[in-house]
Specification:
alpha/beta; Enolase-like, domain 1; TIM Barrel; 2 domains; eight-stranded parallel beta sheet; four-stranded antiparallel beta sheet; 18 strands; binds magnesium ion
Amino acid sequence: MKITRIEAFQVDLPLHEGNYSWSEGKSVDVFDSTVVIVHTDQGVTGCGEVCPLGPVYLPAYARGARSGIEELAPHLIGRDPRDLLVLNQLMDRQLKGHPYVKSAIDVACWDILGKSCGVPVATLLGGTYGDDVVLYRAISQRPAAEMAENVASYREQGYRRFQLKVGGNADEDIARIRAVREILQPTDKLIADANTGWLPHEAMRVCNAVRDLDVYIEQPCASYRECLSIRERTPLPFILDENIDSLDMLLRAAGDRAMDCVNLKISKLGGLTRARQARDLCISLGIAMTIEDTWGGDIVTAAIAHLAHSTPTELLFTSTDFNSYVTRSIADGAPQRVNGRMASSASPGLGVEPLTDVLGKPVYSVG
Ligand code: MG
């Protein structure tokens, strides 16, 4: 089997809530997502999607994804899409770094591999655990009372895990965490995700002020060194996200006992091939994981579901259904949330069919 053509599509994903806001006043109104379709000489096609959280979250941006995919595509024509390690090494040789650029291509090739074997991607990733996976809801940064109201409303929809977007003014963040924890049940899980937004002294103030509560602290400061200094001085369970962008950083943080859980995002690591490697290492190390991506629609959600559902239940801290945050569907067959949970598709590959009328004309077609 050979890759004959690679197409990239741009699609806008507006949000049900109007906008999504997180640390330091950062906000996105409409997500700019890129869908890749890989064609083969045997008529099998695969799809992938990459959607950065705007240009100021990680070193990634939507036009960069499309530009990088266009740069890589000519090198992939004629290659066997099922040879995933070979393809990933080739991509790494042709374009240094830029893992998010490689993610959608890698996911599309997993889709092809699954379809050509007649099995879901989750089977190729190790097989599914249980019927479904537990989801969290990200709560956009707003005044404390409004965030508590939003949590209550999402709780009614079945969610039991909530990730509060803090990383703003420390006093307001303390109020946000307290207001939300108060309306939750003891078995509900609450994560205060500062998304690198606090200076160390602010992070310490918040951690000290909420240390009587059952709350996880996620990525309080910008650098790994700063986060480690907070980790060493707070008893609260600790999650790292933005700093863990490679296997090297994962190993370093595990060696330093710098986290209790880690947030693995598929595009942050460069696709399912690399994310699976990190996931399997975390399984061996006993580090529980949030398995998700930076953002996305139906295709990203499907890829997340396959990786999350093939992760041992006790090590899957939580996962995300991004397609329920956005108003536009871009593929049929994607996982749909039921009572705060979702399952990966049992159909071959990712189990999704891109909606060509929504995608429109490709931005470019190579091959
Ligand atoms: Mg995070």
